[in-house]
Amino acid sequence: MSAPDQGPKYSIAERERRFLVDRATMPALDAATARLIEDLYLPGTGLRLRKVTAPGAPPVFKLGKKYPGAGLSSRPMTNIYLDAAEHAVLSALPAAPLVKRRHDVGNGFAIDVFEGALAGLILAEVSADDEAALAAVVAPCWCVAEVTDDPAFAGGTLAIEGWHASAASRVVTGAEGEGP
Hints:
This protein is α+β, with helices and mostly antiparallel strands. The chain has helices at 84-91, 131-136, 155-161, 165-169, 174-177, and strands at residues 12-21, 35-41, 47-53, 60-66, 74-82, 96-106, 109-114, 122-127, 143-146. The radius of gyration is 17 Å and the shape is globular.
């Protein structure tokens, strides 16, 4: 059994922040180096089936689960690596798809350009090894609003419920949220 301040046995803490991206000012993206991420979220569960295809490499298949944590920025997570046959069996289950291309853009940041039903949505994410390092991250100018704690921008929510441009209007930018 795990200690009260830790996640379930074998889980690791995933610490990340997410931001809406301004398409006009974001760095140039190289399609040739992007990873294609194809997720299937299993409704009614915390499970995500993932296929990651990087240029020049065989696909990587995973079954992941994120557990409730102190917030959306830091949550315990487990992954099981699968082979192609196992992935094929599980991908036959009813699930909500989410497809994006992930571009590493430096300083630990990645930009996710969503496809399909979520086309038009662009998010950036950055991860850190501990809470202090995560809090110290300074978002680049092309990150226009932090959405880390908005459940509307969580992967499972986006896949199952969709995304609407109006969700962005609920987001408070750093300048709007500072001081009295």
